[in-house]
Amino acid sequence: MIVFVSTVTLLAGAAYSVSTAARTLFLAQEEEIIPIIAGGELDQIPALMRGNLPSATTSVVFDQKRREKPPRMCEMPPDYFETIDRGLEQPAGYTPRNAYVRKYRARRGFLNEREMRAAKVAWHYFEKFTQESTGLANSVGNYPSTTLWDTASYIAGMVAAYEICLIEKPEFDRRMTQLLTTIKGLELFRKEMPNKVYHTKTGAKVDYTNKPGEIGFSALDIGRFLVWMRIVKNRYPHLGNTVDSVMLKWDFKNIIDEEGLMFGSYVDKETGETVYAQEGRLGYEEYAAKGFALWGFKPRLAHRAEPFLTASIYGVQVPYDGRDPRIFHSQNYVVTESYLQDGLELGFDLPHDDSSPDWLNTDGWRAEFADRIYEVQENRWRRTGFMTARSEHNVKGPPYFTYDTIFSDGYPWNTVTPRGDYVPDHAAVAAKAALGLWALWDTEYTDVLYEAIIELYDPENGMFEGLYERGQGRVAIYTANNNGIILTSLLHKVQGTILTPYTGDTEVWYTAFRDQDTRERRKYPDPPQKDDWLPALRHSVQKEADF
To answer: Sheet containing 466-468: which strands, arranged edge to edge?
Structure first.
């Protein structure tokens, strides 16, 4: 009996050891793990465990009517724009819940002949410079390289082209499916997140010179990509599982910390080790943070404006990031683009808001700061005669890229290279900034910008990057980001805020890997509840008496 019991005990121990080892080996083979899909035998598991708890949004919590996706432009009835609520009678300012009503209104209406021509030309950039082998679009003309930021701009262009009826569903689905399949198969930076740069013909990781290598990942680029992944998933449910499968390959454990700050990474040149560094400054940081929040992450500190300071320029208190570049080794560029993207794509709303009208901006301080960014540029035009629509942009030849700022390094209207060199001759009216301002601010000044930019194109290559401020002519270069944002601006005129509510129930994003430790190791979030919402903040409205 003793021998028998001992033998059974030994066998049981051996079986346990083998099963534990087998499970460990199985979990190590991440490519072979099959996500758990709702609707199967595992539906008997409690809802929270399988991620089946619905995300809490304003329509659910406050029992409000959820916004609806607008029809495509070619499917809109002739009187469509007579029926929309533009909030023209609403008083400007903050509401008790810290939402903000702007004194300006966005343009709405069908695209006219000139605008349709600009849209066709902008879309032609992507028709010409998208690689057949991968479905990736070049960031700059013929140069076969791209970032996740510029890939998001291509997705933006694709969505706009479909919604304003430049392409039909078969072409849209073909392009989107090929692109997402390629992105899903990209080799990640050290098995974490997408590398900062990829070769568009091969999909291989490259450095900034487009040579093979890996250089880290950008939290800002990924945040923008997440905004457009959520837009695609919400608008086109048939692509939802494809979108989820892309991001379920990624490891988010090092990109957002417990306090809600975002971190990018780079490779130490001496040791070859991965270094994680806080990423983002006022403007871009909060926009990218909302991209993460749309997928259930909690970037609370990244979404706050603080620490910020203001500089008085032409009677406007212009906000800029208060972190000292000498200490934090990151410049505080004030440009138009990050505020435009928030307004065009997200409506200056909080990520959980799926019910407020377009004229009510629930991320109130973002809308207020955006108005200041607009007003200071209009005031400069009125005082000096210089048309002003400032944003970072590419240039042809050295230095290839400039930060054309409203304020940076202590100086207003400072145009600098990434290295910090002052290059005033590269100051320009950025085409994407001009058309974005025109779309979101229906004013006499943006009419002037529109006339300067709307026909600034080459029919074979796309919209030009801009118009040099000092009279040297066009910025003769074509980019994915410029053409993508121009298409986004034109789409906004037709449909308003581009992010539409999610209409499904269970998401694979929240249900995958529920019986494995992969979710915990990669820091995949649970469906956000009311306690997870980013707070609605406010900052004092500037008044002339204040300065």
So the answer is: 428-430, 466-468, 474-475
Secondary structure element (H or E) that encloses residue 317, with its range:
strand 316-321
Q: What is the DSSP string of 494-509?
A: HHSSS------S--HH
- Residue 431 CB partners (closer than 8 Å, separation 6+): 453, 456, 463, 464, 465, 466, 467, 482, 486
Ranking 25-39, 131-145, 168-182 by mean pLDDT, the lowest is 25-39
With a cut of 90, say whether residue 82 has pLDDT above it.
Answer: yes
- In this prediction, residue 197 carries a pLDDT of 98
- DSSP designation for 52: -
**Cβ neighbours of residue 384 closer than 8 Å, sequence gap 6 or more:** none
Instruction: Please tell me the distance from the alpha carbon of residue 61 to that of residue 443, in angstroms, as a whole number.
Output: 37
**Considering the chain, what is the average pLDDT of its residues?**
91
Q: What are phi and psi of 271, to 5 degrees?
A: -100, -20
Structure tokens at 230: 């959520």
Residue 233: is it exposed, middle or buried by C-beta count within 10 angstroms (0-12/13-18/19+)? Answer: buried
CB atoms within 10 A of CB 370: 25
CA distance 294 to 23: 33
Nearest to 331 by CA among 436, 223, 411, 437: 411
User: What are 233-243's pLDDT values in tens digits?
Assistant: 999 999 999 99
**pTM across the whole model:** 0.90
